[in-house]
Amino acid sequence: MEAEPVQFLWRLYEERLDAARAIVARLVGARPRDLVFVTNATTGINAVLGSLKLKPGDELLATDHDYNACHNALVDTARRMRVRLRVARVPFPARNADEILEGILASVTRRTRVALIDHVTSSTALVFPVARIVRELERRGVDTVVDGAHAPGMVPLNLSTLAPAYYAANLHKWVCAPKGTAFLWVREDKQRELQPAVISHGNNTPRPGYSPFQDRFDWAGTFDPSAWFCAGEAIRWMEKLRAGGWRGVREANHHLAVRARRLLCEELDLEPPCPETLLGSMATLPLPDRFQGQPKAGKIDPEQSRLYDEFGIEVPFFRIGQPQRRYFRISAHLYNSIAEYKYLAQALESVELQP
Hints:
- The chain has helices at residues 5-11, 13-28, 41-51, 68-81, 97-105, 130-139, 159-162, 212-218, 226-238, 246-268, 302-311, 338-350; strands at residues 35-38, 59-63, 84-88, 112-118, 143-147, 166-170, 182-186, 282-286, 317-320, 325-331.
- The chain is of the alpha/beta class and 355 residues long.
- β9 (317-320) and β10 form a beta hairpin.
- α2 crosses α9.
- It starts with a helix and ends in a 5-residue tail after the last helix.
């Protein structure tokens, strides 16, 4: 790019972007014309929220499992548009998918216009019954913005069939594409009014063979698009690692996450907070009793830092619920082994607590 910037960013840009977009679209069951690249799911969701046409008295809906950055975008949207933000209480621990659906629908009113719903929640690691949620919200006249940050590569995904109003997702997580690679899928009837977070040339520079939606999003100012160009190669490389392609990758990761959770529950005497049917390739578990009741101290809990500094283990800690309990979340990918979770159990038993 630096040697030949005009060649890279002008003459060859579309053909490289389109090749990557076609492969991403195939992975997520979409038409390429309905999909654009963004730098992360949060950027895509901000574009959607910034384009909404709401009026005073309307309501937005979120859940208490929202990713904090996206929840903040909802809060700001409600403030700017002078609408109400309702937060649905979804139980955790959760007994089944019905409980999740019921918790969301209980907060829908006749004024609800748009709902932000996670496909796979970040802190609680639940796979929401998103197809049922989308259909039930649609029946009530509510558009769904799905935060699919963790979904591609973790769970089966067919956006043409799921058909929410909007779907944003990252490719740097389970697909292992470079950081800065994400996409926004928008149902065709919702594309006309949608504007990117950064408005650039595409609003008055149409290209033959591209939709106005793609024109607006494909170029948002000069930047390094290498990560986007690499998305297709990341997908093609990963699908060769298991028999059955991506289905084999997803199944291997899910089975490892389930085995790992069982091991940790047995080793640490923990009660699993949800059934295995609500798991993808992550699982959130309560920390052992001796960790509970410790005050929050700084950006990262000291015990989490000690796990990394002393044992080389990186797992996030969370404080969830009222009253708050402390949890940790494990992930499983092809490079992990069951021995690593055994090592984690041993480390959690020996790590020192905050004095």
